[in-house]
Amino acid sequence: MSKRPEESAVIRGFGSSKVGRRLPQSELSLTVDSCLAAIADAGLARDDIDGLATFPGGGFDTPGLAGPGALEVEGAMGLSVDWTFGGPEGGQLGAFFAAITAVATGLARHVLVYRTVGEASAQGGQGRAQALSAATAAPIDGFRKWLAPFDAVSPANWIALFAQRHMYEFGTTREHLGTIAVNNRANAAVNPDAVYRTPMTMDEYFGARMISEPFGMFDCDAPCDGSVAFVVSHVDTSADGPRPAIGIESFGSAMRHRPIWDQWPDMTEMAAWDAAAHLWERSGMRPDDIDQVQLYDGFSFLPLVWLEAMGFCGKGEAGPFLDSGKTIARDGKLPLNTGGGQLSAGRLHGCGLLYEACIQLADRGGERQAGRPNSVAVGVGGGPTAGAAILVRR
């Protein structure tokens, strides 16, 4: 049997820039900060980096969501690399998966992977609508042109439809959604880098204004400015760093249905199901082997989708599985989004969850550290794109 790419790669270092609302730094400056931090954490020098990868690679159609492209960062940091990757395909973890493959195939030895957003600054004082192409003078193109005539211009509108169908089919409630939001805020309260740290009650959750039924204000993630970076290195170098490297058990990136929002055969599912199936097909581990999860929460409904897709509970059972938050608390059976997730810590477009998984496996969580996990499952994406990974303590 041929060796899986994951067996040849490790995360040797990781780092972050400041994360916050409308920071007085450019996206390139934030990127350089996170990349230098990751290189230092790996015990490497810039000259050691011979690969560079990012998502989505510049030119993305939503202002503030792309960050600088790989070539721009290569020039700004004075790197000389043999391999680069940048593109929207593959979802938010696509660059991470590509880096693993590059290391495994000998294209590079140490790949710097980064993800940068400047979404909060791009929105300015007018809120999220300012950053949506449907709210600007630009022509509406792509899949949005079929949705805009119905005033469905935001992911909040699109994902709300999936949530409503899940509620209709399985009895999922707003209390279940609120449990995700309140849990994440509790975790963010002890994360000094989180955007929103004030604890939240269920009454405060229900008191927030409605955005797109069933989503209220606290069901929606917190746009921010910031950057995270990782050094993916060949496993042969893992003992050379100043700290233990983090292992990569498996990743899943499958897309087995039409990658269009409204074309899923079952509207209670999303791309998470394909990525999760692929993840387990590539691993000898099973859900019971996972100590902790970091699951995409661009909206509070999405962690429920991931819990079901990954097999931590049965289909339609995610709401009761939460047990009013006991299951997913930091001291629960399956801690969820220990840093506060995108709902409270800030929307780093999924890669912040990968960063938090590294934090937990390296025992660097401080007050938010949830035990000493040996394995963390990461599920990133909503709608028509998704990716999943299992990271392990080596």
Largest sheet entry: 9 strands, mixed
Q: What is the helix fraction of residues, given as a range?
A: 25-40%
The helix count comes to: 13
Whole-number radius of gyration?
20 Å
Spatial gap, N to C terminus: 23 Å
Alpha-beta content class: alpha/beta
Beta fraction of the residues?
Answer: 15-25%
Structure description:
- 30% of the residues lie in helices and 16% in strands.
- It is an alpha/beta fold and 394 residues long.
- The strands form 2 sheets. It has a 9-stranded mixed beta sheet, with helices on both faces.
- The longest helix is centred in the middle third of the chain and has 16 residues, at 155-170.
- It is globular and about 55 Å long.
- Mean pLDDT is 92; it is low at 130-136.
What can be said about this structure in brief?
Helices cover 30% and strands 16% of the residues. The chain is an alpha/beta fold. Strand 10 and strand 11 (387-393) form a beta hairpin.
